[in-house]
Amino acid sequence: MAVGRPSRARPLLAADASDATALSTSLGARSGGAYLDAATGRMVVTVTDATAAQRVRAAGAVAKTVKYSATELDAVFARIEKSAAVVGSSRATDPTTNQVVVTVDSTVTGASLAAVKAAVAAAGDAARLEQTAGTFSLMIAGGQAIYTGGSRCSLGFNVRTPTAFYFVTAGHCTNIGATWSNGSTTIGTRAVSSFPGNDYGIVRYTNTSIAHPSAVWLYSGSSTQSITSVGNAVVGQAVRRSGSTTGVRSGSVTATNASVTYAQGTVSGLIRTNVCAQPGDSGGSLFAGSSALGMTSGGSGNCTVGGTTFFQPLNEVFSTYTNLSLA
């Protein structure tokens, strides 16, 4: 009787990002993380040995051999953050290059810059330093516009408990004021504000005449994107952002679990992207298709020259407040 070849797993694609991430996690110290190769549409899982590579290929992902495990890079990240988290700097692990990326803005000079350079140099080829024009700052201006006092932010996502409706936005926005309006009518009051450390706020709707669909405004006529799930961002993933200053902008995820040190404090566990944003976009929606990913925190640059923007993951809010669901 003829014996056929063993069947191969189907290729892991963008829709299988959670499977690739879980595979990387299960490999422990034998993987440096996972990411989406935008050119091929395949999920890549980095590995530190041949046995792990075989397991990755058997699961349908592309195996890429790297020098450092995620555990080792996490340790490098922690050392740099402890010694050189100066205002105007950010830190993120880049699985595509197997390095911790430390970025400083134009305000980091003199002794502060020297401290960052020393911390990066001490990590050898496990870290690299980048410089960005502009300033890492919060995106507040003096999804759809929401207002408190004299400040404008953007609505992230509508959510609910079994008994009430809420929306989530940036915590640095909800720190400013307790009562929120749509510019003409009061719509809700602050229930939760978490910033710095995190950057999310939850506002309870108090105006029953205001609709609160599970959708993102696309600033194109009356069109919206329905939101049906909460997802985990993956490096290389194509994403869109909606905000009240610059509308809808596109780009990709460049890192997860990033941290940035603003003048107001350090925020950790962020999604880093190359999507542009400007003041007033704070709190706005980051999404991929019908999947909600996060809310705009801050960054550098603008939508003329481009830049780096950080987002607070929505899944952290749902993990903390387990009675919340999408509206």
From TrEMBL:
Keywords, ordered alphabetically: Disulfide bond, Hydrolase, Protease, Serine protease, Signal, Zymogen
Domain of life: Bacteria
Disulphide-bridged cysteine pairs: 153-173, 276-303
Domain (Peptidase S1A alpha-lytic prodomain): residue spans on this chain: 68-123
A GO MF label: serine-type endopeptidase activity
Cellular component GO terms held in the UniProt record: extracellular region
Keyword DNA repair: no
GO BP: proteolysis
SUPFAM superfamilies, per the entry: Trypsin-like serine proteases
Catalytic residue list: 172 (charge relay system), 199 (charge relay system), 282 (charge relay system)
Tagged with keyword Protease: yes
Family per record: Belongs to the peptidase S1 family.
Protein's name in the database: Serine protease
Protein's organism: Phytohabitans rumicis
